Amino acid sequence: MFELTRLKVHGFRGFVDEQEFIFDQPVVLLCGENHLGKSSTLNAIEWCLFGDSCVGKQTGIRERIGWEIANRYLPAGNVAVTVEFSGPKGIYKVTREQSITKKRGVQRVAMFLPDGTVVHEDEAELLLYTLFRSSFQDFMTTVYQHQEAIRVILTQEPRERNDAIDRLLGLSQYRELLGGIARAGLDTILKDMDGKRDNFRVRCGQAISTLSNLIKEEIAKAVREGITEKEMTEQVALQLAKNIAETVKSLAQELGVVDFQSNIPTVFGDIAEFREWVKNETDRLWTQTPDVAKQTGLVQEQRNLNTLKSKLETDKVEEATAQKNMTDFVKQFGDDQALDKAIQKQQKTISDLDDQIRKTNAKANLIREAVQYLEDVAPAVIEGRCPLCGAGAPNLLQHLKDEWEKKVKAEVAELDRQRKKCKSSLEQIEGFKYKLKVLQKDLQSAKSRYNDCVKNIAAALKRKIEETDDPLSLLNKCLEQIEKELKLVDKAITEKRKTISGIYDQLAKLRTIHEILTHEHKRGIIERIFKTDQFLKLEELLNSASRFVEDVKTIKSTLTEVSREEAETKINAAGAALNSYFCRIAKHPAIAGLVMEVTEDSKTGLNSYAFKSKDGTDPTPILSQGDLNCLALSLFLGLSEATGETQRFSFLMLDDPTQSLGPEMKGELARVLEDIANRRNLIIATPDTEFKELITTEITKGKVVYTFTSWTKADGPKVTKAS
Amino acid sequence: MGYNEKVLIKIHSMEQRTGERKTLWQTIIDSFEKEGADGVSEELSRQMADTNKEFDTMISGLERML
Fold it and tell me: Residue A55 pLDDT more than 70?
């Protein structure tokens, strides 16, 4: 076993400078008020041994969520904890360090062994586990009595409680092994394999049924087509194939194909390929037949000539229409010359009228100037007398002016009217001229198309067409000739078509027989599938998997059995101590004694634990908080003894064990610890001065007391040591 | 006596498949000591997966006959 001998703490939680604790007596007391560093001293030991495993939700301890390792008031440096043990071969030292500033920084672990060897990091972590055989959870339930961790046993879900008690009893390896086996999910895989095999069987049955129905329908159809059931054999199918091959060969010879290679199937399995071959060869021979080739050529020529004929007729009609339009227009509006002459005439008339308008305007201006002159040189006129005769003529000048203006205006208006009329006539004649040009162009275009078509006909007929020839007649004559030739060719190939048709009929018959026999063959394969080597191998694999799963189940139930037997042994060993400790500490008047039982959980096969009063009732509903604490302490103390040889640590750590205990309970607890101190070293942290006095007086083993007197940010806990 | 020996004694007292179960238990123990409970789970899954893979190959071949 490993005995704790020394602890050095630096920068851990509330600690500042290095603080050393020497565990050189069987009982070590850490005393002082709350929040001065007692619990942190115990925590330093677990952190040194288990690192991050003591932090976070997975610990099952609420206060460990977001738990700080490094002293939050230190600006830099390292957290460093060293724990020293005295073990079977000498002194073992463990150190764990991490940076102060990094909340969850990389940790450095080193282990110093008695032979001087030092191992680091992962190797050191592995060696820690190998030496102490203790996980953090094991440590928390069998070495370190933490109030919250112990209460899990009494108050949490049954599954978690059973898990915790298994750990207390050192049976967690059984539980882990069983968990590992269960997580492999072998039953599910086997069930899946079974399901696949069953599903395959069902599908085989369905396939046989589907094929049987199909075959029945195909046979009925074949019989309707004149095929007898006796013909539905492989021999008949092969004979039929041979006949077809020979017919194809004779057709090839008839058509003059010299390099024809026949393909006669010798086994039934080749018939599918043969059917494809016959189809391709027949099609190929047909297209290569001279009469068929000639027929194809004639039909193509006939199609081309008919197209040309249709175009020629259209072009001819279009040319005649264009010519008629042209002739009608000339008849109505005149030809090019007539229209040009009319245009020139109108243009001259307009020019003459322009001259007359200019002359009339010039004459009017002259008269206006003369009147003005008269007004200037002959004032008598203004006075109303005639300048010639001197007789009175009132308004003579004004009268002359008005008369001239009226006459000139009328004359100019008449000339403008005549000019507009001529201009309009000119525009109309020019429009006719434009229309005539369009008609001339249309006629030219129609003639050009017709001529092109005639050229194409000449090329198709392979002869020259003179102006005196009628292309339509030439075409019709040629088409009649083609029609005659086509009739002759049709007659020639009718016989060959009958041969081809005969081949296709035989091929259809072969296909029907082939499909029926293929489906029967496939049904036969499926009917025999369960006797094939493959299926027998499948069954063997399934049996092998079943045996494997059965073996794993047997081992699982053996593990369960061994685990329960060991639990019973330990409970029997601890039972008396548990009962004794509880009765001594709690002194509950209604509970004469306490019994712990283990049974098998019917669902999981794991151990299931229960507490009972000696009268068979469940005691927990009538227990006070102090009683529950007594029960937790009794369970921890009783079972920590029951762990026996599996426990590697020779000490117990109790953190504030007297919570909710009355004075009498505290006295009894001190006396119980006196008994335990005979077998295990004790490290007890308590703020309870009454309990400290009780320990001092009741426990007869050597003691050392570390008193935590104060704590400051700058210096951490102030600790004094007294023996 | 550790759990290994206790389980072995029980296996030895069985009437059937003692050798196979002893080998299997040894495999479980080896995996557990190397990689813990997850190692056991993975090793058993792997062994079953080997058979399952061969089974799937065989059934795929049979499916093609349908």
Answer: yes
Give me the mean pLDDT over the A352-380 stretch: 82
Q: Which of A53, A63, A60, A143 is nearest to A107 (CA)?
A: A53
CA A591/CA A613 separation, integer angstroms:
6
- Which of A:664-723 have CB within 8 Å of B? none
Residues of B in contact with A529 (CB under 8 A): 62, 65
pLDDT in tens, A168-184: 676 878 888 999 999 99
Coil, strand or helix: which one is A693? helix
A183 touching chain B per CB within 8 A:
yes
Q: Do B55 and A542 touch (CB under 8 A)?
A: yes
DSSP string, A612-668: EETTSS--GGG--HHHHHHHHHHHHHHHHHHTGGG--B-EEEEESTTTT--HHHHHH
- What's the CA dihedral at B18, B21, B23, B26 to 10 degrees? -120
Q: Does A595 touch chain B (CB under 8 A)?
A: no
DSSP letter at A17? S
pLDDT in tens, A270-325: 999 999 999 998 888 888 778 888 888 999 999 999 999 999 999 999 999 999 99
Residue A116 backbone class (left: φ over 0; alpha: ψ -120 to 50; beta: rest): left
Q: What is the dihedral of CA A455, A460, A465, A469, to 10 degrees?
A: -110
Nearest CB to A173; choose among B3, B17, B65: B3
Q: Which of B62, B9, B56 is nearest to A200 (CA)?
A: B62
> Which of A173, A162, A88 lies closest to A131, judged by CA?
A88
- Give the tens place of pLDDT for each residue, A510-543: 999 999 999 999 999 999 999 999 999 999 999 9
From the candidates B56, B60, B66, which should be mutated to test the interface with A, based on the most A CB atoms within 10 A?
A: B66
Beta-bridge partners for A717: A711
